[in-house]
Amino acid sequence: MKRSPAIQSALGAALALSVILSGCSGGNGADAPAASGSPAPSAAAAEPSPGGGGGAGEEKEPVTLRFISWKDSYNELYELFHQKYPWITIEQIPVNSQPILEIIAAQEAAGTPADVTEIDTDLITFEQNGLIEDLGPYIDRSDIFQNATFPDGFFDTMTFKDKKLAVPMVDVPMWVLVNKDLLAKHGVDMPGNDWTYDDFREIAKAITDPDAGEYGVTTQPEIQMRLLSTKAIADGHAANLHYMNEDLTQSLLSTPDVMNDAKWLQEFVTKDGSMQSEADANATGNVTKEFINGKTGFAIGGDWVLPTLKEKATFEWDVLPFPKGKVSQPGYSIYGPLALLSGSKHKEEAFLWLSFQFTPEAQKWKIDQGANASVVDPELTAYYDQAPIWEGKNIEAVKMARENAKIQPGLTVPAWNEYNYNNILNDIIFGDRDINDLIPETEAWNKKTAELRASLQ
User: Where are the compositionally biased (Low complexity) regions (predicted)?
Assistant: First the structure.
């Protein structure tokens, strides 16, 4: 597959990507040989039995899978996988802030190709350069995948030109964080899980006390990026997160309804005074930029905030689902993509690592870390009640976040990295940028993504 000059330039001449990866297959797992010359997995070989495999007394050759990941907290998960497939060991290749495309090329150059990778940019770049496998044929042969029930649209954000390019390594949920002590100080009860965006706004005003340095809402980009985007869906103004239309081909950010949503949140700063501007937050020591400081009532958080809150919060906190809008009550979730590299010498075993993510033991481990279950299963839903991380918290809100989640798009949207929804809205909500700047910005991007999509057909 031909690789774009831009990608080759990004990798650098020293890496010589065009030479190093010239033998990588851009085909699917059904008929593309592995780099070592071994065939793609057959139906029988796709998922060996947990005990180690084939006939009585048969021993598997030890395999080390090389996994590119920036997480340093997966050691327990690696051990669970090793217990299920004793002949396979996971060796993590740390990212260390380096672009993953460069890591792939460097590993190939060293003669130690990686097998599996998390993805740090759009999947189209990897697909167009022949770096990742189409997982469709593997999934079709997989007992684990075929026997599991997944949420509607599970593969949608990771499918491009009818190819399943990745699966979620983790389903990262988000919730509205609540400072219960601040609510109680102002005589406000903890809202129910069916609360509305009007409730959110009114409570934020009620618990604001500038003289005490206390504000209803944390001055954080997450509020704009996650909550405002979700509100647009809840009120029927957009079909997908980040103001995207139904088929993810165009942004609706410049439509009157969505612009009014932006004005709604902007008024928390300019009218209600329940959220500080960027300038005011800076002038008062940035205290209201961090929920952990205990001076704000609401913030947006995901699994990444839980360890810090549990260890360091000096106030009583809890979680709520995203509020209810005029037509629905969607949540917000991120799929962290996991892909099988075309240069892998161990494709059979590498797919076992991918499919293992959706076994009960792996799913329960992820729930224990604060992630969503990716599989629809009553046993997993019940397990939320047992997970120590949620002891004493609003577990029903956590379950709602999973059930109502909309998935963050972008992985297979052409020119997504050029879609300037985030920075411009930060400047409008927390600064003094003219909201009408949304119109030319959005029109330009809509034209760009449409042209690029057409060129990729």
Answer: 30-49
| Domain locations along the chain | 5-172+335-391, 175-333+409-455
Question: If DSSP codes are grouped into helix, strand and coil, which group holds residue 174?
Answer: strand
pLDDT score for 121: 87
206/131 Cα distance (integer angstroms): 53
Same fold, 5-172+335-391 and 175-333+409-455: yes
User: CA torsion angle for 309, 402, 144, 80 (degrees, to 10)?
Assistant: 10
What does the alpha-carbon distance between residue 419 and residue 417 come to, in Å, rounded to a whole number? Answer: 6
User: In the prediction, which pLDDT does 58 show?
Assistant: 65
How far apart are the C-alpha atoms of 282 and 298, rounded to whole Å? Answer: 19
Q: What is the DSSP letter of 32?
A: P
The CATH T-level fold of domain 5-172+335-391 is D-Maltodextrin-Binding Protein; domain 2 (3.40.190)
Taking only the tens place, the pLDDT of each residue in 203-257 is 999 999 999 999 999 999 999 999 999 999 999 999 999 999 999 999 999 999 9
Residue 435, classed as helix, strand or coil, is helix
| Amino acid letter for position 280 | D
170 beta partners = 336
326 class by beta-carbon count within 10 Å (0-12 exposed, 13-18 middle, 19+ buried): exposed
Q: Which CATH class is domain 175-333+409-455?
A: alpha beta
C-alpha to C-alpha distance for 337 and 69, rounded to whole angstroms: 11
Read off the pLDDT of residues 35-94 as tens digits, 9 standing for 90 and up. 333 333 433 334 544 333 333 346 889 999 999 998 889 999 999 999 999 999 999 999
The dihedral over CA atoms of 56, 57, 61, 62, expressed in degrees to the nearest 10, equals 110
